[in-house]
Every structure is written in C-alpha cells, then in structure tokens.
Amino acid sequence: MAIDKQALVTRLQQAVLDAPDLAMMVLDRTFTIVWHNRAFGEEFKEFPAIDGMKCYDVTKNGKPHQGCPLAKTLQDGKHHRGMVDFGERYFHFMTIPLGDGYVAKVHTYLPKQPFGMEG
Fold first, then answer.
1. b/e 31-54 (16+ beta carbons within 10 angstroms → b)
2. What percent of the chain has pLDDT above 70?
3. Are 26 and 17 spatial neighbours (Cβ–Cβ below 8 Å)?
4. In a domain? residue 117
5. pLDDT (tens digit, 9 = 90+) per residue, 66-95?
6. Three-state DSSP state, 64
C-alpha cells in the first residue's frame, strides 16, 4: 500500500491544530488576536470573544511585557522561543512569523517532574 504523504501531512496539520496541550493564536502587528485554536480558547474561557482582543489584555498584563517574543518577531521576522518558570510548571512558548504582519504564538505547559522516561 502506497503512502499518501500529502494526506498524512494534512492529518498532521489538523492533529496539531486540535492538540489539547498546544495553545495557538495568530496575531497581527497591533497585538490583536485574529484566530485561536480550541486549546487557547479553553485556557482563557472567561473571555467569550477572544478574537479581536489584544493578547496582553487576555493575559491581563495591560501592555506587552518586557522582552515580548511577539514584538521581537514582528521586529526581526524571526522565530523566537523561551520558557518561564511558573512555580509548579514551566510555560514554554514559540513565535512563528507568518508574513504580512502576522505572527503565530504557540505555547504549552511542562511539568517540572520528569515524565515519559520509564525504563
């Protein structure tokens, strides 16, 4: 049986967009959220309409934070990533330039305890 690579890529794309542990949003150059996936919506479900909001209003900062990866990506057009220690878990994020003033931001939370390494 021949592998239909394009069909696999399409399935992968949908699986990534629907992944419950990968929160994603697409923002414009004004930090406005123009699209988000289900995981992002679940994380910030106290907001009935996330699309159209500024990302920093959703995270309750009121302004872009110091070292904002979105601002960096908009400025230099490059991918950026990082991790923040939130006490019980790590917040891992990356930004992906999409061109025309749009950037995708993907984030997930990682436990501090090792997992998935059973021998």
1. bebeebbebbeeebeeeeebeebb
2. 96
3. no
4. no
5. 888 999 999 999 999 988 888 888 989 999
6. coil
Cα–Cα distance for residue pair 60/84, rounded to 1 Å: 16
- Bridge partners for 32 per DSSP: 54
Residue 24's Cβ-side half-sphere holds a number of Cα atoms within 13 Å equal to: 17
We report the CATH number of the domain holding residue 49 as 3.30.450.20
Domain extent at residue 20: 5-111
Residue 119 resides in a domain: no
Q: Rounded to two decimals, what is the model's pTM?
A: 0.84
Task: Estimate to the nearest angstrom the gap between the alpha carbon of 50 and the chain centroid.
Answer: 14
* Residue 119, pLDDT above cutoff 60: no
